[in-house]
Design a protein that fits this description.
The complex is a heterodimer of chains A (about 900) and B (about 120).
Chain A (H helix, E strand, L loop, with lengths): L1 H14 L1 H25 L4 H12 L2 H11 L8 H14 L1 H28 L11 E8 L4 E2 L4 H10 L3 E15 L5 E9 L2 H6 L5 E2 L14 E4 L1 H8 L9 E4 L2 E8 L12 E4 L16 E6 L5 H18 L1 H4 L2 E7 L12 H30 L1 H9 L4 H41 L16 H28 L2 H6 L11 H31 L11 E8 L11 H24 L4 E7 L8 E6 L11 E8 L3 H4 L4 E4 L13 E5 H6 L10 E6 L1 E3 L2 E3 L9 E8 L15 E5 L8 E7 L7 H11 L3 E8 H44 L1 H9 L4 H33 L9 H28 L3 H6 L3
Parallel strand pairs in A: 4-9, 6-8, 15-22, 17-21
Antiparallel strand pairs in A: 1-2, 1-10, 1-11, 3-4, 3-7, 3-10, 5-8, 6-9, 7-8, 12-23, 12-24, 13-23, 14-15, 14-18, 16-21, 17-22, 18-21, 19-20
Helix pairs in contact in A: 2-3, 5-14, 6-12, 6-14, 6-15, 6-22, 7-10, 12-15, 12-22, 14-15, 17-22, 17-24, 17-25, 18-21, 22-24, 22-25, 24-25
Chain B lengths: L8 H4 L3 H12 L4 E2 H11 L8 H14 L2 E7 L5 E7 L1 H27 L1
Antiparallel strand pairs in B: 1-3, 2-3
The chains are: A alpha+beta (about 900), B alpha+beta (about 120).
Chain lengths: ~900, ~120
């Protein structure tokens, strides 16, 4: 068949390019031979015959190129060759490949990570019609934050709103899920309207979901289990429907199991019906809830918002005192979690990232442009040999594409790895709330990949096509004539300004990054100084009615709760002591190394800053704390049973306190006083049980724990106060176990539930894990900063190198003339260096001023108080790097042979 | 036969489409290699037409890609390897069509030239 043969040939031309090319050579050679023979027969000498034949034929290479163009996919036929050429160029110029490629990869990675984070934050619930699920919130315009107590409003919405259907509400809490004969662990429970199941449109795996009838006050207590809970607690038992489970103290009957992936509203695994009658609450009273619904068919978000706002205005008119500043709001469920970030943060971050991308793009194009400029000769020769302009531009594009494609792959890989880490870190950070919401997925979206591909193509256009177009734009003859001399392309003022700006930026920013990277790295390696794998830690929490529940006497309820909690933890402590696997157990406000910082004034010692006192770590610990961690009194005593009496006010300090605060002066008997609160989430808090005007007396000094601060720039000096379990909640339990700590974890849960089913031991982990996670984060921070610093330095060096290289190429002939006229090599070298040195100098001076300013503004924090060492060191490094980068091209310039340069050979 | 001395380009340059037609015509008699096609065209035109020899091969490649001609390597009479081109059935049809449209074109030009 004719067409199969044609396709075979086409494929062959693509796949077996060498064979096809050889045949073309042979065919043309045959033609020339025949022509020559004919000329000989006509009476010419063989040499003349050959000459005439070749003349007659014309440029062989040109015609070959035309033949190639005429082939199938002729326009592209060079592309794979070009790609190979491109790959070869990359290997031939490893510096450019590494620096430019790295720059592009970093840019693509940053953009992809940002895009994936934004995509995750803005993604609706992943069910059919998920974009129609809405959150209804009430915003307090005075504090620009959410108001949770809106049961009254919710009741009105349920009656009046037409644009949103299936209106429902929920509140969440954690309870011990106690299964007879099974393990016990705290689970996240949603108390939710039955309509939450209808909204998602997900049928249950077993049994039934919650239904409206379950919401009736006084009805049977029912619960629906999530898939994971069903698997882990019931081993996937299909007969689970109808079984009884306890949530804390209350017994519930399981009525259904939901399929995997159903964790609505956030990340819940157990659901019980919400039994709240909105009609029973006055405006702005009752428990805090959250509300959701589904847009009615054909209704837009704006229409729903308008209707809810109108109802809100009516309520505000009726109750101006409570509702004058409240604004109800309808927004898409999922992205609504980002509502707190509505202000300037996201545009600001987007702007910063764009700026960073721009800086990198500029650097990479300086590099490539300078290199392309040095290849002007090659372009001219190729044009002369018959390559069309399109052909040359295609080749440069292919070269750029190879580089940017490799960068895109590397960048996306980095992004994927970082995103996985980021998800794990955020999940851990949100662990007290049950981790990330179930629909958040920090994967590389198809959009991010497409974006990266588009960026790569765009980069290839910028780094390939633009310089090639400029280089091929000149007329052939003049380019040919200029071959040996100037490269015919200029690298003008703009580039010089960019290089100066870059050096300045580098000098300004590197002191801080170097310092932080070193600091993070140092703290990432700290030795805890004790066998952390044998310490089990947990946070002790007790079931409590959700916030806002109306009770007749809240004060009495609180007192009763505190008393019960104190009794429970004391009982747990007693039982732990008699456990054979336990060497010691202690309660404290926080884990060692995670203490909050407080300001104290010390009697007879002047504080560095008047009025603020010394910043010191603060913890409250029971009498067994020091013994459990192997600390003993170095002088004075540790806490005793009587220290909690109202008359006593003892504190114990550590060795670092004596060294850093007291300068080695005597500690015992000295008094200290609380000076200011600590900041947590932007709020100044005064810790429980501290009296601001009271003097506390130092009764003892103990060793340091941990031996070095775990977090950078945290003080090591420590003040301990005796722990009153009634005055602090929740408490941290640390158990010194015999053998690996985690082996004791199940027994701890068992003991706690035995004491009180409402007592939850959360976040059970070994101290080694706590430290390792923290240090892992520190090391990652150090690595990230190190990479950033390195790439900034590298890009600067590359910019200088490119500029120098270009200058040398451009001034080749001039250098040749000067050398021929007898100029001393040192003078030529100085001339070459002067431009680089001038730019380096200006950049460094501006950067130095910026670095000093930054250091001054941050009160030395950006350099950890070592500004006098760090900043000059950085300037020196930049100068050395810059001069090293110019050294190669300068040497190349010195090696230019005068005759060669003047002859105009390339 | 001697090579033509300094032919005037305007008279001898052959339009690309026309060259294709002439090649098809030359090959309609028998399969032949590239050099022979060039010779045949000069012969047929009684040396008036000078085919740029270099542009012959891109044209052959183009026609082969269109499926109008086919090529294979064969031995010549002097026992040397050469690539021989032959018309395919599609090429024969195309020759008819192209010839027809060329005639119409030529007539049209002729008519215009007479009129004005």
């Amino acid at each position: 068949m004719a067409w199969t043969k044609r396709w075979r040939k086409r494929v062959r031309a693509l796949m077996r390019r060498d064979d096809v090319e050889r045949e073309l050579d042979e065919e043309l050679a045959f033609h020339l031979e025949m022509e020559t023979e004919m000329n000989v027969r006509a009476g010419m000498t063989p040499a003349e015959a050959r000459r005439r034949a070749v003349l007659e034929f014309g440029g062989v290479e040109k015609h070959k190129e035309e033949v190639r163009d005429a082939r199938w996919l002729g326009g592209l036929n060079g592309l794979s060759l070009d790609a190979r050429l491109g790959a070869r160029m990359l290997v031939k110029h490893p510096g450019l490949t590494l620096v430019g490629g790295l720059g592009m990869a970093v840019a693509i990675a940053i953009a992809a990570i940002f895009d994936a984070s934004m995509g995750a934050a803005n993604s609706p619930i992943p069910v059919e019609g998920g974009h129609r699920i809405v959150a209804l919130e009430v915003w307090d315009a005075r504090i620009n934050n959410q108001e949770g107590q809106f049961l009254y409003d919710f009741g009105r919405w349920r009656e009046e709103v037409r644009t949103v259907e299936n209106l429902g509400a929920f509140r969440t809490f954690t309870r011990n899920l106690i299964v007879d004969g099974g393990s016990t662990e705290p689970v996240l429970v949603a108390e939710m309207s039955a309509s939450g199941f209808g909204i998602m449109g997900v049928p249950p795996l077993l049994g039934r979901p919650l239904v409206a009838a379950d919401e009736a006050e006084g009805g049977p207590r029912v619960a629906v289990l999530g898939y994971d809970t069903w698997q882990s607690r019931f081993g996937g038992d299909r007969g689970v429907v109808g079984r009884e489970v306890r949530l804390g103290k209350a017994v519930h009957t399981v009525v259904g199991v939901m399929p995997p992936g159903f964790e609505f509203p956030l990340n819940q695994h157990v659901w019980v019906p919400l039994r709240l009658d909105p009609g029973g609450y006055a405006p702005r009273t009752g428990p805090a809830i959250e509300a959701f619904g589904l847009l009615a068919p054909g209704v837009s978000m704006a229409e729903a918002q308008a209707e809810v706002a109108t109802i809100g205005n009516r309520i505000a008119a009726a109750f101006p005192d409570t509702h004058g500043h409240l604004r109800p709001r309808v927004s898409q469920y999922g992205p609504h979690l980002m509502d707190g970030f509505e202000g300037w943060e996201i545009p600001f971050m987007r702007g910063m990232i764009t700026l960073l991308l721009l800086v990198i793009a500029v650097n990479v194009s300086v590099l490539v442009f300078a290199r392309t400029a040095t290849r002007a000769g090659e372009i001219t020769v190729r044009s002369a040999l018959g390559a069309s302009r399109r052909r040359i531009v295609t080749q440069f594009f292919a070269e750029g594409l190879v580089l940017s494609a490799v960068s895109a792959v590397v960048g996306l890989t980095i992004a994927a790895l970082v995103l996985r880490q980021l998800e794990a870190i955020m999940d851990r950070a949100l662990a007290p709330m049950g981790g990330l919401p179930f629909w958040l997925d920090f994967h590389l979206s198809a959009r991010a990949v497409l974006f990266a591909v588009a960026m790569a193509a765009l980069a290839a256009v910028i780094v390939g096509i633009v310089p090639a177009l400029r280089a091929t734009g000149t007329r052939l003859e003049s380019a040919l004539r200029a071959l040996g001399g100037s490269a015919g392309m200029a690298l003008g003022r703009t580039w010089s300004v960019l290089i100066v700006a870059q050096v300045a930026f580098t000098v300004a920013i590197i002191p801080a990054t170097v310092f932080y990277a070193a600091d993070f790295g140092r703290y990432g390696m700290v030795d805890p100084g004790l066998p952390a794998g044998e310490y089990l830690t947990a946070s002790l929490v007790m079931d409590r009615e959700p916030r806002g529940q109306d009770v007749p006497d809240p004060e009495a309820v609180r007192k009763a709760f505190e008393a019960r909690y104190a009794a429970n933890v004391a009982e747990l402590g007693r039982r732990l002591e008699s456990e054979p696997g336990v060497m010691g157990a202690t309660l404290a406000l926080t884990l060692p190394g995670k203490e909050p910082n407080l300001h104290f004034t010390v009697e007879g010692v002047d504080a560095p800053q008047t009025g603020r006192g010394f910043e010191v770590n603060y913890n409250r610990v029971d009498t067994r704390y020091f013994g459990t961690f192997g600390l003993r009194a170095l002088s004075g005593r540790i806490f005793e049973a009587g220290d909690l009496s109202p008359a006593a006010s003892p504190v114990v300090v550590n060795r670092a306190f004596v060294r850093d605060v007291l300068d080695g002066r005597d500690a015992l008997g000295r008094r200290i006083r609380f000076a200011a609160g600590y900041r947590e989430g932007g709020v100044v808090r005064v810790p429980d049980g501290i009296e601001a005007d009271r003097w506390y007396e130092i009764v003892g000094v103990v060793g340091d724990l941990p031996r070095r601060a775990i977090e950078p720039s945290e003080p090591l000096a420590q003040v301990y106060r005796p722990l009153d379990p009634r005055a602090a909640y929740p408490l941290n339990l640390t158990i010194h176990t015999r053998g690996p700590a985690m082996e004791f974890a199940p027994r701890l849960t068992e003991l706690a539930i035995d004491v009180d089913p409402a007592l939850q031991s959360r976040d059970i982990q070994s101290l080694a894990t706590v430290i390792r996670r923290f240090q892992g984060g520190m090391r990652m921070g150090a690595l990230g900063l190190g990479l950033l610093t390195g790439s900034v330095l590298l890009l600067s060096a590359a910019g200088i190198y490119a500029l120098m290289s270009f200058t040398v190429t451009q001034r080749r002939r001039e250098i040749g003339v000067r050398a021929a006229l007898g100029a001393h090599p040192r003078r030529i070298l100085a001339a070459i260096f002067s431009r680089a040195a001038r730019q380096l100098g200006i950049g460094a001076a501006i950067g130095l001023a910026m670095a000093i300013g930054l250091n001054h503004l941050s009160r030395g924090e950006t350099t950890g108080g070592h500004a006098r060492v760090v900043i000059p060191a950085v300037v020196a490094i930049i100068l050395v790097v810059g001069l090293l980068a110019s050294w190669g091209p300068a040497r190349r310039g010195l090696r230019i042979q005068p005759m060669e340069a003047l002859k105009g050979d390339v | 036969m001697t090579p033509k001395s300094n032919p005037s380009p305007s008279a001898n340059d052959v339009l690309r489409g026309t060259l294709d037609l002439l090649i098809l015509k030359a090959l309609s008699l028998e399969p032949m290699h590239g050099w022979a096609v060039a010779q045949r065209l000069e012969q047929l035109s009684r040396d008036a037409l000078h085919v740029g020899q270099g542009s012959l091969y891109p044209a052959l490649q183009r026609l082969e890609e269109k499926g109008w001609i086919d090529s294979e390597w064969k031995a010549t009479e002097q026992n040397r390897r050469a690539r021989y081109y032959a018309l395919t059935p599609a090429g024969r049809r195309a020759l008819g069509d192209e010839t027809e449209s060329w005639r119409r074109y030529a007539e049209m030009v002729d008519v215009i030239l007479r009129t004005i």
